[in-house]
Amino acid sequence: MLAGCGTLSASGDDERHIDVGTTSAPSTLDPAAAWDGSWELYRNVYQTLMHYAGTSTVPQPDAAKSCGFTGADSRTYRCKLREDLTFSNGNPLDAAAVKHSFDRVLAINAETGPAGLLDSLEKVETEGDRTVTFQLKRPDATFPFILAAPATSLVDPEEYPADELADPGTLVGSGPYTLASYKKGSVAELERNSRYLGDAELRNDSVSIRYFDDSDAMTDALKKGDIDVTYRGLPPDRVPELEKTADEKGSIALSRVVMPEIHYLVFNPEHEYADSLAVRQAVAQVIDRDALVRKVYGRTAEPLYSMIPRGITGHTTPFFDRYGEPDPDAAAVTLQTAGVTEPVPLTFWYTTDRYGSVTAREFEELERQLEDSGLFEITVKGRKWEKFAAAYNKGEYPVFGRGWSPDFPDPDNYIAPFTGARNALGTPYENAEITDELLPASRRKADRAGVNEQFSRAQDILAEDARLLPLWQARQYIAADDDVAGVEWSLDASTIMRMWELYKKTSW
Fold it and tell me: Which residues pair with 181 in a beta bridge?
């Protein structure tokens, strides 16, 4: 992280309390129903068997005392739990509760849930109160990473039914914090969990997470001292202002992180025109990523030419290699060759709140670029995240925009979640070479540095199909009052904020 300084200090009566602002509100409190930004809350209130310690990208035991593969085929994975684990309500967190947590994700199989992430899991077995064994359908060296993802949050069997989602107001976990109160879309109040047993060392006693619909309102709240930290949704055009104020007044710190977070377009071939390879490839030939980033995101993003971002093993640039610089004339030839001679009507959908208010400007710029080519007639529509996500999971949109922060820092997690009959996008994308050959071959390799061949080929296939169109990679800025410390330790390897790392210098 690179840090500078800047504006008005936050104040509060409780020096052991932190106020955090974000534009990424949870869609649900039940881990079985969310494969999205809800994980930012889950990481702090639920516990997983594994986690990422410090700046490590290698999963380490958390609720588990130890975990590992047994045998040489990477198909049996066994964990031994810590002793005396309980949920925040005092109920035991034992092997049966772990099995229940995994089984219900698969049994409920929620449209918006993470069941697809557990595709390689065949069954969960228990031995006594503390031993859990995961039998896999096939070798999968990424399984320890999955156990560190909030998708596998551990839940109390008494509070979370085996075959249906919990009551919308229910949240009982075993993580560092308890959810003291929650107002949907507004605020989550977290308090230190006195029953917590795990690796996290809490540097504060409580955290308020305030959810903002408007990025500028969040920035203004920071400057006024109403919040101590902003994470996700800081508007790009406010970054220079904060940097300037930092130089002049020095009481807000601005930290920059090069993120493995990507943003992209999804084409649903169940809709007219989006089903045309020529149309999708023509869009890929017209879009000018450099202009998009320069006009909308400035220094907070960089152009992206693959679904695997820079900094992740196996990254290549297949969309640049195949389509080159933006070329409307080449796109016209692509369409004409396919017999398309009239401007193509397409509707692009985006979420108005999940990634910050600036997303509207991004889609306005995409509309301008495509219509200026004379080849497309674009309609842009936006919805708040909850309705937006429900609709794309039902296949309602021909083209829509998504962002992706990794479940775990491995190239597998930029390919597998988007392919197959059941994926994180609600839009089936079946390619046998990827799902039946390349991914299984890569998962047999415990050394993740040795998977370049498989993922290079997978990226080439994605570029040829143009079902998924990468746009940009994030450079995330975290703005915090200068009295707040721990920012540099607050993000784990999957770029989820660990609230327990934040504290006020005056409190220590």
Answer: 189
Tell the residue number behind the tokens 């990468």, with chain if given: 470
pLDDT tens, residue by residue, 356-368: 889 999 999 999 9
- Closest Cα partner for 45 from 137, 131, 159, 130? 159
Q: Are 112 and 390 in contact (CB under 8 A)?
A: yes
C-beta neighbour count of 109 within 10 angstroms: 13
The single-letter DSSP state of residue 119 is: T
Rounded Cα–Cα distance for residues 393 and 387 (Å): 10
Q: What percent of the chain has pLDDT over 70?
A: 96
**Inter-CA distances, 168 with 29, 33, 39, 482, Å:** 7, 11, 16, 37
Amino acid letter for position 438: L
> pLDDT tens digit string along 451-488?
999 999 999 999 999 999 999 998 878 999 989 999 98
Read off the pLDDT of residues 99-153 as tens digits, 9 standing for 90 and up: 999 999 999 999 889 999 999 999 999 999 999 999 999 999 999 999 999 999 9
d(C-alpha 374, C-alpha 376), whole Å: 6
Tallying the residues shown for the chain, one arrives at 508
Whether 174 contacts 163, CB under 8 Å: no
pTM of the full structure: 0.84
Token code pair at residue 445: 């390799």
Whether 157 shows a pLDDT value over 70: the answer reads yes
| Cross-strand pairs, 179 | 190
d(CA 262, CA 260): 6
C-alpha neighbours within 13 Å on the C-beta side of residue 197: 14
CA separation, residue 114 to residues 30, 34, 217, 345, 424 (Å): 11, 6, 32, 33, 7
